[in-house]
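Because discrete structure vocabularies remain unfamiliar, it helps to consider an illustrative case, giving the amino acid sequence and backbone structure tokens:
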Amino acid sequence: MSESQPSSRQEEQEINQLLQIRREKLAELQQNQKDPFQLTKYDLTHHSKHILEHFEELEGQSVSVAGRLMTKRVMGKASFCHIQDQDGQIQIYVRKNDVGEEPYTEFKHYDLGDIIGIKGEVFKTQKGEISVKAKEIILLSKSLQILPEKYHGLKDTDLRYRQRYVDLIVNPEVKDTFIKRTQIIQAIRRFLDNQSFLEVETPVLHTIPGGAAARPFITHHNTLDLDMYMRIALELHLKRLIVGGFERVYEIGRVFRNEGMSVRHNPEFTLLELYQAYTDYYGMMELTEDLIRYTAQEVLGTTVVTYDGVEIDLGKPFEKLTMVDAVKKYAHVDFNNIHTLEDARKVADDHEVEYEAHHKKGDILNLFFEAYAEENLVQPTFIMDHPVEISPLAKRKADNLDYTERFELFITRREFANSFSELNDPIDQRKRFEHQEELRAAGDEEANMIDEDFITALEYGMPPTGGLGIGIDRLVMLLTDSYSIRDVLLFPTMKPRE
């Protein structure tokens, strides 16, 4: 169907008539024992791109191609059409004398959107277009819907996301984005595999939501009669593997957060998390830069990308700023001189930064960062040394116990990565969890619960470890210049239509 509702009852009737005609054509085919849906296979030998790129060696050769009928121009005893396969489009020349009178008559009744197979010879037309001269032509599948009108395309973004299959048919650049998405994930895997990381899989269903501050989805296991949670992060199981003796592990997997939706947020998204024993957050910074730079070079052939009209240089060393220094730089407030919660609340009141009753000094520092600093972080910047109040799984800084060895990477004003020197002190970890439980009791649904088994794992001993999480979807957005996360998810979460 077209991307917008018919503007009048007459248009609606015309569309319904066209749809009915397609069904009548199918019924006639079925009556004549030519039901395309009864076909089970078609032997194709070539795709469009291969023919176009290797014309010199394929000219005059017999090929078998298949695809969706996108254009058709009937001219008496000869016709031209274009079919679209997974790689693009190629022109087909169909002549009655070559394919036979009955197949040619049937071809003239094909509709745009039908899927057809052609066996023929590669040649070049008088106008110089590489084509296939059909010797045999067959209808492989009948399209009972109408593709969006050629020159207007499928522009309604809501319908594009709901009917991604139509979006992929009529908007070639959309398919290119998702091909790049796959290439990005493949490049990440190559990089990590070459760094001796082991890819693993961990459970999606958790008995306790942990590893992030997020509201979970709740489901129920009937056999165990137990409420369970869709995972909000990969962290705690991966760190159990570090305890178990693996030194470098990673997982690329879906996580689920029952939170708001925006151009940056979808309830389910793809996350890369990795953990490396015997390193810290400085080692993770180096690895993060190398991974992103490698991925961009592999997929795009350059480390300079343009996002929303702004040139982003991934090839230069990423800037490093502590959160305190970032707030000092952009809000002109120095938290090194703020020593009490009362002082933090006063400066927040003076700057109209809203906070809640349970917020500590570190929480208010983070609120300042979000209000004043984030919007300025366009080029890649590591924001380091987060306050302990907002970092329940990160190791404290040895020279300042109010802060942790943690960084977040910001590019284009968005967070792309989160990393810690992982907390491996089980006693401190329990205290952090207990503080999170107090926040949960006060109404914070995103606060962590106490994971007793994880604490037990830490009691067996976990080596000093660096951990890193990267949002795959946001990285794909950056490298494909996509405005919304829905543009890089094949099937984003949508509210059902009435």
In short: The first strand starts at residue 62 and ends at 75.
